Amino acid sequence: MLLKNHSKYSLECGTDEAGRGCLAGPVTAAAVILPKKFENTLLNDSKQLSEKKREILKPIIETQALTFGVAHIFQEEIDSINILNASILAMHKSIDSLAKKPEFIIVDGNKFKPYNGIPFETIIKGDGKYLSIAAASVLAKTHRDMYMNTIHKEYPMYNWKQNKGYPTKEHRAAIEKYGITKYHRKSFRLLPEQLKLDI
């Protein structure tokens, strides 16, 4: 059973990101403030849920949350500031777009930077412990997947519809065969060492 609140504050925001380990596309973060009475037995860490269940949960979270925000940080910026900074920036930007200012922020993982003087706590595997972080993980994942499905149409040979930009064997084989696109993260090791890419 996921916990409702970590702090004593009623406007507690959970935040999480998706797409950190991908070779292509943005890193996407979401921030969610849930009402005190929110309950959902299906909701869990997005990695534990099927795509179908995430799609069922997305509109429930978006209609029942007090407020939510989603932000993409794209590959050019990831290459410029590195993936950790880009992930934190995505979380900050998702919190920026909340309609209510949170009184406390709980963050999945162990890395975060102070945000506007609001107290925060990083929680390892927080997406499997707290409803608001789980909700943020579902929104980050579903919004990012929607984006990857869209750019899949432009470059179907990488099969982003299926792999969402993650380093699958198929994705790496396509990079080897076709080279890279404008959506690939040039600062990432796109191919194993023995297969060098001219960037």
Overview of this structure, please?
The protein has 199 residues and is of the alpha/beta class. It has one domain: Nucleotidyltransferase, domain 5, CATH 3.30.420.10. The protein is 36% helix and 15% strand. The protein is built from six helices and five strands. It has helices at 51-64, 75-81, 83-96, 131-152, 160-163, 169-178; strands at residues 12-18, 27-33, 67-73, 104-108, 120-123. It has a five-stranded mixed β-sheet, with helices on both faces. Helix 1 (51-64) packs across helix 4. The protein starts with 11 loop residues before the first strand and ends in a 21-residue tail after the last helix. The model has no long low-confidence stretch (mean pLDDT 95).
The CATH top-level class label: Alpha Beta
Residue ranges: pLDDT <50 for 5 or more in a row?
none
**Number of structural units classed as domains:** 1
How far apart, in Å, are the first and last alpha carbons?
47 Å
Task: Give me the CATH architecture, please.
Answer: 2-Layer Sandwich
Q: What is the CATH topology classification name?
A: Nucleotidyltransferase, domain 5
Number of DSSP-assigned strands: 5
CATH superfamily: Ribonuclease H-like superfamily/Ribonuclease H
* CA radius of gyration: 17 Å
**Strand line-up in the sheet with most strands:** 3-2-1-4-5
Q: Helix/strand-derived class?
A: alpha/beta
Assess the beta-strand content as a share of residues.
15-25%
Query: Number of helical runs?
Result: 6
Give the oligomeric state of the chains in this entry, treating copies of one chain as homo and distinct chains as hetero: single chain
What integer is the average pLDDT?
Answer: 95
Overall geometry comes to globular
- Helicity level: 25-40%
